[in-house]
């Protein structure tokens, strides 16, 4: 059977090489075969083949989060897409950059438009190149998320001698100049400014602008969970993910003259403050006006490229030399999660303290399930791309951490990548240990085992008077890990984590550490 030397699929792959794409994440099969076939002639792009389409999408997400570049994935039509849909939605909600390529099928469009931020269809071979570039440009310049490009089967397989034009790149836009100047003046003359740092700062690579702005204003910085570590959490102005609606963090925000919130309005950005207070206090900066409707109270609403806007603010605000908040005030805010943990899960506090001491400063740390809620409140992160929790703003899925860590290790092989998950969450996507093995990647995986869905147990008991639906029958995790050529150890107590983790980090093989640890849901 003759194979066309250049067809629509090859035009698609050629456009990917123009964007410097290194990897294609997915699982081959019918409908995706033409794309994989084109890779035979394009050695610059390596297929990363996962064991499940959801796992592949999470691997792509982890790679994108680590590199701040667009990850490109594909799958077979229909069932492959629905398996991948959680990963695409995760990328959209968490504002990661992911482009998904698919052979067109009836019904795809409705699914894709519900989980992806951007969508395009190439109706001819000449439309493939401009459509692909336009989608990646949107991800680069505008609000990140999932994007999808569909190409009909006939076009993927038909000869394609001519490529369409590469469209001009869209320019990043700043907020209205008058509003931007007003924001600078308001920040400059306010005595008590607090900054709420969200994911757009990390996505725009503007951590340095945030640091400069915070230091010029002497403004403490709360981090949205999606941006943990965006201001390193040993900095005197960093209060991290310590906020909750009923603690000193909300009191600090309530006392501020101005709250500059970058990214989501939910949670710490608006807290439980009244609409009247938000109307006089809140400056909301985001990629666009998606969350800036007329009914949403704020003193100023700035819509534009987040990184460029922060650069302007950091360069133009008046430097403040006096402290707005005392060291003791900020220390008390930072200490709230630890004091709460001592009341709620006192037996686990030494484990988290030991874990913090043992983790490398530049670790890539992926968390899952209920243990992630505690990690994000208690442990310190030292960069905006260091701690990743799939519940930061995303789908609330379980099973994200392990495959995402595979993608991170692929992106940064020189850094230690550590996963921590409960036993329930770990078994959502353990098949991606095979992907880890296939590509020779070293991971350290900590499984906190209480032999049940702990959150389900406590939540149902509290709501209905009796726990239900939480019991699990677990495998032997040590033998499971050994089946994937990992070192494995079962600890006798949580406090034994330090030597086991250090040995795992020092070694050259992947390691699984099973820890007997029971936790309780966070309630404060």
The low-confidence runs, each spanning 5 or more residues with pLDDT under 50, are: none
Describe the main β-sheet briefly: 6 strands, parallel
CATH superfamily of the largest domain: Thiamin diphosphate (ThDP)-binding fold, Pyr/PP domains
Instruction: Calculate Rg over CA atoms.
Output: 24 Å
Count of extended strands: 18
Mean pLDDT: 95
Oligomer: single chain
Please report the number of helical segments.
Answer: 22
CATH class of the largest domain: Alpha Beta
In what order do the strands lie side by side in the largest sheet? 2-1-3-4-6-5
Shape: globular
Distance between the termini: 66 Å
Give the helix level as a range of percent.
Answer: 40-55%
> Which topology of the largest domain does CATH recognise?
Rossmann fold
Alpha-beta content class: alpha/beta
Q: How much β-strand is present in the residues? A: 15-25%
Could you say how many structural domains there are in total? 3
Please name the CATH architecture of the largest domain.
3-Layer(aba) Sandwich
């Amino acid at each position: 059977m003759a194979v066309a030397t250049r067809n629509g699929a090859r035009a698609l792959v050629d456009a990917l090489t123009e964007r410097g794409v290194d990897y294609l994440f997915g699982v081959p099969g019918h409908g995706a075969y033409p794309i994989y076939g084109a890779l035979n002639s394009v050695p610059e792009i390596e297929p990363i083949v996962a064991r499940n389409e959801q796992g592949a999408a999470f691997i792509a997400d982890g790679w994108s989060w680590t590199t701040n570049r667009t990850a490109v994935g594909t799958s077979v039509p229909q069932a492959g897409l629905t398996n991948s849909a959680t990963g695409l939605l995760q990328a959209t909600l968490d504002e990661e950059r992911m482009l998904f390529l698919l052979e067109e099928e009836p019904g795809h469009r409705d699914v894709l438009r519900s989980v992806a931020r951007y969508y395009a269809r190439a109706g001819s071979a000449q439309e493939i190149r401009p459509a692909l570039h336009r989608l990646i440009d949107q991800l680069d310049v505008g609000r990140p998320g999932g994007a999808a490009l569909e190409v009909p089967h006939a076009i993927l397989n038909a000869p394609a001698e001519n490529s369409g034009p590469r469209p001009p790149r869209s320019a990043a836009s700043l907020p209205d100049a008058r509003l931007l100047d007003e924001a600078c003046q308001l920040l400059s003359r306010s005595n008590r400014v607090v900054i709420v740092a969200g994911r757009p700062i990390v996505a725009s690579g503007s951590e340095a602008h945030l640091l400069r702005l915070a230091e010029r204003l002497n403004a403490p910085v709360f981090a949205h969970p999606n941006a943990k570590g965006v201001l390193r959490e040993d900095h005197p102005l960093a209060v991290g993910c310590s906020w909750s609606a009923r603690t000193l963090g909300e009191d600090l925000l309530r006392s501020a003259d101005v709250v500059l919130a970058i990214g989501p309005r939910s949670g710490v950005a608006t807290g439980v403050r009244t609409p009247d207070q938000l109307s006089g206090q809140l400056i909301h900066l985001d990629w666009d006006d998606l969350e800036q409707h007329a009914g949403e109270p704020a003193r100023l609403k700035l819509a534009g490229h987040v990184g460029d806007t922060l650069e302007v603010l950091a360069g133009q605000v008046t430097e403040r030399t006096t402290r707005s908040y005392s060291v003791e005030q900020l220390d008390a805010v930072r200490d709230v999660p630890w004091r709460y943990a001592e009341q709620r899960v006192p037996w686990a506090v030494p484990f988290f303290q030991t874990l913090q001491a043992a983790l490398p400063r530049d670790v890539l740390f992926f968390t899952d399930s209920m243990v992630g809620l505690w990690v994000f409140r208690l442990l310190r992160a030292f960069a905006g791309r260091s701690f990743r929790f799939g519940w930061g703003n995303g789908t609330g899925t379980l099973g994200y951490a392990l495959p995402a860590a595979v993608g991170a290790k692929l992106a940064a092989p020189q850094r230690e990548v550590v996963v921590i998950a409960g036993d329930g969450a770990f078994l959502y996507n353990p098949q991606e240990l095979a992907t880890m093995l296939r590509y020779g990647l070293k991971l350290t995986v900590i499984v906190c085992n209480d032999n049940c869905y702990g959150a389900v147990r406590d939540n149902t008991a509290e709501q209905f008077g009796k726990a239900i639906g939480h019991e699990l029958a677990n495998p032997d995790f040590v033998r499971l890990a050994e089946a994937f050529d990992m070192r494995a150890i079962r600890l006798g107590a949580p406090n034994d984590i330090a030597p086991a983790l250090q040995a795992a980090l020092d070694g050259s093989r992947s390691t699984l550490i099973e820890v007997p640890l029971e936790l309780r849901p966070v309630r404060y």
